[in-house]
Amino acid sequence: MIYFTADWHIGHTNIIQYCNRPFVNADKMKHFILSNYMKTVQPEDTVYFLGDLTLVGPANKQYLFNFTRDLPGTKHLILGNHDKLDPFDYVEGGFQTVHTALDIGEFILVHDPVNCLIDHNRKWLCGHVHQLFKLNRVGNVLNIGVDIWGFFPVSIDEVRREFTA
Fold it and tell me: Contact at 8 Å (CB) between 114 and 86?
């Protein structure tokens, strides 16, 4: 199965207040998101992370690697505005590939949807907007961020259903 997820913001305490997330602290948020991921993703699955995985910088990259290396599935990262490590660091941390955007045929994957306006004939998946797209989809753009999807990864089947609804 193919899954998509975005905007985990691991280690970002202020995101709880900014997005009205239902967690008492960043550690509880991390454990909840990781638990939902582990309940959903199997080792044979592919997962596209559409940015803002964490706010961890180079000095704390081991903190990130302590959980990303063990996440099941083949993982691909689309860099977000808060992803501060060198792309090779993310590969070291368990990601198969790292991109700024990625065309996977059926969908174009980006973090920030601002560029989605350039091609209305394609279907775009994004993060970055958190709860701004409260109905998940705006035209040809689908927000797959955790704030909209109950802090679970979104399957490709769910994404397809959103575009046919």
Answer: no
